[in-house]
Amino acid sequence: MMKNLKRIAPLVGAFVLAAGPAWAVTVANQSKQEQVLTVDRGEKQSDHKIAAGDAFQVECPDSCGLRTRSGPAGYGRMAQGSDKLVISSEGMLTYADGDLVTGSARETPAGKAQKGAVREK
Questions:
Q1: Are residues 56 and 115 in contact, defined by beta-carbon separation less than 8 angstroms?
Q2: Domains in the chain with CATH codes
Q3: pLDDT digits over 66-80, tens only?
Q4: Which among 30, 79, 75, 38 is positioned nearest to 55, based on CA atoms?
């Protein structure tokens, strides 16, 4: 049994490292300038600089609010799980899957709109 455990342990460790945290939201800066991303986790907020062309991962186990300083005032997105967002050349924060959504949330895969979401067609 110990021999089997010694064979399996490295495989399990590699799987855990490859999978990464399922709650990490990725924000890619597609603009030509550095952007400041504000992460709002309720009572705690933090700012993170993202260089042009770089990406940043944010741990959001439940959900968190994201906004950029260069985007329109009061504009942001709610993100959770393994969402992928991009910062456009105008400083707008959008979902990477290309859904056109206004407000602070988007439709779920099941097609039910989350709080505050309005789908444009």
A1: no
A2: 21-119 (2.60.40)
A3: 999 887 777 889 998
A4: 30
